[in-house]
């Protein structure tokens, strides 16, 4: 009984120490050096936004300290770190959780996502594959596994994961997002006819909450929007440029307009929104082009 109690106290203290350290520590060095050699830093938020993100982190730390046995508290603490773009610390938190709960699919799902963020795609594939084996009906697991394969240039494997993802999508927003990645994956594979079938599931009037940029791209692929319209919509924010810009750039790429594609990818990686999937994918394309 005494040994069990001491072990429990050690575990709580370990979380408490980590939580207190990360909640107060400000990282000055880059979060990572990109494959293009750029120094990428934690979230540039300031003012009220930064205050809110830090308050949320402290609250998550308190919950974890109060109940370190709950995997949901581990996940939430990691997510709050990730909202500040402190991905290495988030990965450490998830790794600690996995050591205690090795069969928790969502810990692997979140760590896999953050391995994508820090450009460690092999580790991302390993984690997300494990997550899919533990839970084969979660949209986010398949979505991120497909992306990890896509970023490694494994388009056949990405195609398989994205099909599984589409099968478990439950709303228009999810269907729109996955249809975009599935379509461009099929185009990269030279399967244009199969890609066109994906577009048959996309229509006007779908309920869009978060994925308007993907919806606009699907309109482009359908011929319902022009390049100029997508380019204009991409100027709304750095995130919109990363998302819409990558879709437009890869559209140029598989249509043989390599220089135009390269120019768009270059614009994306000159923005500050480096965790965006479109930014990461543009970075991968430029690395391949520069070899």
Strand content: under 5%
Strand line-up in the sheet with most strands: 1-2
Number of helices: 15
Report the CATH topology name of the domain at 46-168: Serine Threonine Protein Phosphatase 5, Tetratricopeptide repeat
SSE class? mainly alpha
CATH class of the domain at 46-168: Mainly Alpha
Order of helices and strands: HEEHHHHHHHHHHHHHH
CATH architecture of the domain at 46-168: Alpha Horseshoe
- Quaternary class: single chain
Q: How would you sum up the global shape?
A: globular
Q: What is the residue-averaged pLDDT?
A: 91
Instruction: Give the CATH H-level superfamily of the domain at 46-168.
Output: Tetratricopeptide repeat domain
Query: What are the low-pLDDT stretches, counting only 5+ consecutive residues below 50?
Result: 1-13, 19-25
Structure notes:
- There is one protein chain.
- This protein is an all-alpha fold and 291 residues long.
- It has a domain of 123 residues: Tetratricopeptide repeat domain (Serine Threonine Protein Phosphatase 5, Tetratricopeptide repeat).
- The chain contains 15 helices and two strands.
- Strands 1-2 form a two-stranded antiparallel ribbon.
- β1 and β2 form a beta hairpin.
- α3 packs antiparallel against α4, α9 packs across α11 and α13 crosses α15.
- The chain is globular and about 55 Å long.
- The chain starts with a helix and ends with a helix.
- The N terminus is likely disordered.
Secondary structure: elements and pairs:
Blueprint: H1 2-24, E1 32-33, E2 39-40, H2 47-66, H3 71-83, H4 87-100, H5 105-117, H6 121-134, H7 139-151, H8 155-168, H9 172-188, H10 192-199, H11 212-222, H12 227-233, H13 238-254, H14 258-268, H15 277-289
Antiparallel strand pairs: 1-2
